[in-house]
Amino acid sequence: MQSTAIELLQRMPVFGAMRADTLHLLLDHAHELRVPGGAWFFHENDAADSMFVLQEGRATVLKGWKGNSLVLGALNAGDCFGEMALMDLCPRSASVRADTDCRALEITANEMLLLFEHDVEQFALIQMNLGREVCRRLRATDELLFRARMGDTGAVASAPPYSVN
Length: 165
Fold this sequence. Notes:
- The chain is α+β, with helices and mostly antiparallel strands.
- The protein has one domain: Sandwich (Jelly Rolls), CATH 2.60.120.10.
- The strands form 2 sheets. A 4-stranded antiparallel β-sheet has the order 1-8-3-6. Strands 2-7-4-5 form a 4-stranded antiparallel β-sheet, with no helix packed on it.
- Helix 1 crosses helix 2 and helix 4 packs across helix 5.
- The protein starts with a helix and ends in a 16-residue tail after the last helix.
């Protein structure tokens, strides 16, 4: 079972170049979470100290605006979300709802501390990977904002779905 989870993690950019022994350490301490379809992983503005790796199921990322929930994108098995919490320790910036029954790994700040204490190089590598992922998403958002400000009214409507890979 753990070898399947390690293979999943090794295919994800956030865990790129991470050694198997390091991933074993994370998996030994990570929590497996089951969220039924229609239930929430978390809500926007919730306190946050963990990220999730979706192992099974589909989920939707939503952001509130003037009493409405706007879809930012879709999550599928193999995607990670909530990683900003491990970097900035701020409340959740969006909500994530399970569309189907989901199974996910939850990696908390405590597991990251264990990783730091165990192998500072691997800790630095995952932090760099997290930074790259956040930057990739920021670049995509910057492009949409630029296009919208330049009068491209279809910029947001024609944007590809929020991608977390």
